[in-house]
Amino acid sequence: MPDAEHGAGDGRAEHDERGPSDERHAHSGTSKAVAIAVVVAALGYFVDIFDLLLFAIVRIPSLTSLGVPQEEARNAGIWLDNVVQTTGLMVGGLFWGVLGDRRGRLSVLFGSILCYSLANILNAFVYDIDPNGSLSFLHSIGLGTALRQYEVLRFVAGFGLAGELGAGVTLVAELMGKEHRGIGTTIIASVGVLGAVAAALVATAVEWRTAYLIGGLLGVGLLFLRIGVVESGMFKDVAERDERSRGAFWKLAWPPERLRRYLAVIALGLPIWYAVGVLVKYAPELFASLGIPKADTLTPATAIMWCYIGLALGDLASGAISQVIRSRKRAVLLFHALTIVAVALYFFVAPRSAFTSKVIILFLGFAIGYWAVFVTMAAEQFGTNLRATAATTAPNFVRWAGAMGSALLWTALEPVVGGQWQSAAIVGAIVLSIAIVACLSLRETFGVSLDYVER
């Protein structure tokens, strides 16, 4: 039996002697099947990011059209996006992650896209219900107002969006050879994050309701592309052996060393969603507090677009660097260092003009562009029986903790330190410190075999 150390760091994850090797699984499907899986996962993540960031892009016009005063758009946005939607992501991450290990990776790829696509299509039709009309019963269940409908649908959309990335990355990682799976996941992340750029362009060209409709219909169209995707051979082997621990989320919390490993994986990605969830989504408010004239303050759409252009380039660079230096950890630590520089520039150089703001947000996006390496590490840290659960829940816990936690801490510290940007900077220092310590605590996973189960 191969050394368990190559499977997981807690010493209790074991390779099963009956299971075939990593490489045989990788080549059990044709190269065409692997290519289809990568393309479909990449396009799926593209639509995922399109819909995930769409609210942040249309936050101000959609809320003001529904009667929210513009001066209240920040707090309303934090509630709907950083709290409600990310809570949907967290709950959905648990559901889809367990389903992925129990029923297979493909069931999540189909189910999650259908869920969030329908939610976004319905989001295009929110409106206040006439209490005396045919739909007056909606008032009795708390859905009589457009804002409450918006709230419920953002939770449902978040729930559906939670499954896409983890299932796609897990499937591709298990279909590809251990030396090359980082290339596949890099392609997924790099193509996927461009969905935010597409969402920003669409939202500036059409009315916000139409933008939601387009996002939902893109997802429905993806369902037809998934017909040719094959299931992971590693999952099939574990399913055939009726491995009882498949999808047992509680096993990520025991033994304690495995819980430490899982929490470290989550902490690893916190700076990404601190940057996106606070510095980028709320750039108009933060730059105003930094002294940029209102005429030069970036819109959410512009800030998100420049950030995600940088993120796409960063994902390509971090993935390529990790392949060249044959290390996930050192690549992530390098991008943590770049993020520290970018955050410092954001607060101390960006206020000079709208141009410098765009350049620095582009660089910030590049610096946090280690998402591809992060999700690969999340998949590589755990055995086949818990891999989809870990790879699906970890990114969504990052989104929840990074976006909601950072935003709530930001607003809580604001009256204490006396300003928006000062409190945001303190939150950044906390988040980056936690992430660096977490990265140093994790084992290196480049090139390790994935053909094992957690015992």
Distance between the termini: 14 Å
pLDDT < 50 stretches: 1-29
The tally of domains stands at 1
User: What's the order of the H and E elements?
Assistant: EHHHHHHHHHHHHHHHHHHHE
Please give the largest β-sheet: 2 strands, antiparallel
CATH class placement: Mainly Alpha
How many helix segments?
19
**Known CATH architecture:** Up-down Bundle
CATH superfamily: MFS general substrate transporter like domains
As for the CATH topology, it is Growth Hormone, Chain: A
Structural class: mainly alpha
Major beta sheet, strand line-up: 1-2
Percent strand equals: under 5%
Descriptive overview:
The protein has 455 residues and is mostly helical. The protein has one domain: Growth Hormone, Chain: A. The protein has helices at residues 22-26, 31-65, 73-102, 105-123, 137-140, 146-161, 164-175, 181-205, 208-223, 233-240, 256-268, 270-280, 283-289, 300-325, 328-348, 354-367, 371-380, 387-417, 420-441, and strands at 13-14, 453-454. A two-stranded antiparallel ribbon has the order 1-2. α2 (31-65) runs antiparallel to α3 (73-102), α2 (31-65) runs antiparallel to α6 and α12 (270-280) packs antiparallel against α19 (420-441). The chain is globular, with a radius of gyration of 21 Å. The protein starts with 12 loop residues before the first strand and ends with a strand. 58% of the residues are buried.
